[in-house]
Amino acid sequence: MALISYVVPVYNNSGSLRPTWEGIRELFQQELANHQYEIVFVNDGSKDASWEEIQQLATEDPKVRPFRFTRNFGQVPAIIAGYHKSSGDAVINISADLQDPIELTVQMVRSWEAGFDVVIGHRNDRQDSVASNFFSKVAYGILRMSNRNIPEGGFDFVLMSRRATDTFLEYQGRNRYFQGDILWAGYRTALLPYVRRKRTIGKSQYNFGRKLKLFLDYVIDGSYLPIRMMSLSGVAVSAIGLLYALVVTAAWALRATPFPGWAPLMIAGLVIGGMIMLMLGVIGEYLWRILDEVKHKPMFIFEDRSDAQQ
Fold first, then answer.
1. Per-residue confidence band for 98, with pLDDT thresholds at 50, 70 and 90
2. Domain span including residue 81
3. Less crowded by CB within 10 Å, the N or C end of the chain?
4. 182 against 58, higher pLDDT
5. Distances from the Cα of 165 to the Cαs of 64, 118, 131, 149, 162, in angstroms?
6. Is the domain of 75 the same as that of 172?
7. Helices 130-146 and 208-222, axial angle in degrees (round to 10)
8. Which of 221, 218, 232 is nearest to 140 (CA)?
9. Which residue has the higher pLDDT, 9 or 247?
10. 282 three-state secondary structure
11. 202 falls in which pLDDT band (50, 70, 90)?
12. In angstroms, rounded to a whole number, what is the distance separating the alpha carbons of residues 93 and 80?
């Protein structure tokens, strides 16, 4: 009997954890009755009653494995910690907010049994606010410029075989490009589209700042797109400057000097100065990540030492 591990990162998800557990357990009483399961809950510094709810579930079901961080380290570190603690033949990452359809994991397992090492549940539509939908489309549109293998709606809901999981855990780095790292290995991949459901319990903890940080991690860690955009912008500005210089030279030769005034100089100074500041900002993002890596700080810390040894 194959063991299926569910990794559930938790941050202020009180009220939705029991329905998540019940939904998973029901699958293994019916469609997946010929398999075993474990649920790895990783409490990412929740400030509500999430940890108490996880502990209660662990007392009711020995297949529930509870872990918690000392503070909030972020969703990706919680997922990676869960992968480290999982022991299944296949590992499924699923959100704790009931927006990912638990029943889709049956098709994921079937696809894995058919020979796919990576099975991605990707969002082809979402029952979210207009602002969230807009941000998602823009963000993933930019990400797909550097990696065309990323589904248009992106993904977090994914199954990986044990060998794909072990490969993923070999990667180093604190600011991880989660989706790109999964696809980078090139394992045989299946895509399962689904509609992301509207959140009915609690509220999303992903404010604009968190989304922006995640987006920057994806773009900067996973591609050379910012550097290439800088290079192309530099080429474009240089070309415009060269053309303008030729115009000025021709006007000087014809003794028809340009209109005197500070406006052209100010425009040129602002444009070039803005480009320089933009490029320095992007370089600064890379330098910050280099500094963050050389410190060799752990990506996450477990509250209980026994958790780190399990």
1. confident
2. 3-223
3. N
4. 58
5. 20, 9, 33, 19, 5
6. yes
7. 10
8. 218
9. 9
10. helix
11. low
12. 10
C-alpha closest to that of 109 among 32, 6, 20? 32
Helices 225-253/130-146 angle, 10° precision:
80
Is 306 part of a structural domain of the chain? Answer: no
Provide mean pLDDT across the span 120-137. 69
User: Positive or negative, the Cα torsion across 81, 179, 95, 103?
Assistant: negative
Strands in 189-196's sheet, in edge-to-edge order, are: 64-68, 36-43, 3-10, 90-93, 157-161, 118-126, 189-196
CB 285 within 8 A of CB 220: yes
Same domain flag for 280 and 186: no
End-to-end CA distance of the chain: 23
State the Cα–Cα distance between residues 248 and 245, nearest whole angstrom.
5
Q: What is the CATH number of the domain that holds 129?
A: 3.90.550.10
Tokens of 39: 């649920």
Range with the largest mean pLDDT of 36-40, 180-184, 305-309: 36-40
Report d(CA 98, CA 196) in Å as an integer.
Answer: 9
Round the CA-based radius of gyration of the chain to a whole number and report it: 25
Shared domain for 95 and 214, answered yes or no, is yes
Helix boundaries (H) for the chain: 17-27, 50-60, 75-85, 104-113, 130-146, 162-170, 178-184, 208-222, 225-253, 263-294, 305-309
Phi, psi of 122 (to 5 degrees): -110, 145
Same domain for 167 and 275?
Answer: no
pTM of the model: 0.74
Distances (CA, A) of 250 to 243, 253, 258: 11, 5, 10
When pLDDT is cut at 50, 70 and 90, the band that residue 219 belongs to is low
